[in-house]
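User: Could you write out the 3D structure of this protein bound to beta-D-mannopyranose? I've included everything you need below.
Assistant: Certainly. Input first, then the structure.
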Amino acid sequence: MCRFAVQNARLERDTSYMVDTSKQKTIGPALPNIPWEAKPVGCRDIVWRSSRNPIIPRNPIPNSNSIFNSAAVPFGDEFAGVFRVDNKKREMRIHSGKSKDAIHWEIDEEPISFICDEPEIGRFVYGYDPRVCWLEDRYYVTWCNWYHGPTIGVGYTYDFVQFYQLENAFLPYNRNGVLFPRKLNGKYAMLSRPSDTGHTPFGDIFYSESPDMCHWGHHRHVMAPKGGWQSTKVGAGPTPIETTEGWLMIYHGVITSCNGFVYSFGAALLDRDEPWKVLYRTAPYLLSPQELYECVGDVPNVAFPCAALVDAPTGRMAIYYGGADTVTCLAYAQIDELIEYVRLNSEV
Ligand code: BMA
């Protein structure tokens, strides 16, 4: 048994409003208050940017150099999140935040300090690229955590005030640990991308299972880099979204240009019971760095998605992504339209 026993349920969520309509395809709660802007007239893109971008600038709190690659989730009638904040010493930290509308954020000035039973694991060196996933009775946080190199840190919170840290999911080196929002085949399930100690010129997405959120195994290969925008490496982004057509996985893909890496994002549909089986996968990207706030910053040419809010009855989706490793941005999609696009433009 994992030494960090999963605590008794302290939070419960009303699931009576879960919907599964054949038109909208999304399986999940109604969240009518997520950010939304209609697709601009004449726009032919499947994913379109918020007119308010970047929604979080680089320095809304005194010590931040940049705030990007961050995760937002519904929290009661409002929203909460975990944010990547690189401070002015250029240390990588993760901070908690709250928002009434998921656009204007109050981000804690101090980084998250995890409560951890294991000093060996709880010794925080760096953390970045957080994901947050509501699972059963609490919000799990996964992030790229230093333990003799980057690996996947796992923690949880009930209130975004106190955070508890569990065992790292994997041996170093690994990044982009993304939990599924429910158990699959009776097990917790996570996507991740084994890496190296540095900027990793390779990277495939793998699937792993755990009976207890501590011991991870049953590793399966999901997908490798392919051509063009996703030819160097790929990594899962937001928590996968359950649909009648499969798990919708938004992922980043990287091409190596003569000026370095370029991070874009696309989407895939994974089998609902065996998510290591890719049903469809976008050959063209959905969004690539083209706006100034994606092309200019501490790391140019990066659009890096880490979270998505979805309103199941309407199929509206708001995607949070980091721009140029400097700011936080929002983009929108309509899930039924996106699924159709993934199907029609797929190369697996
Ligand atoms: C990756 C991660 C991301 C970052 C990206 C581009 O390896 O470090 O946090 O956005 O590189 O620099």
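The CA atoms of residues 21 and 88 lie 48 Å apart.
User: Perfect, thank you.
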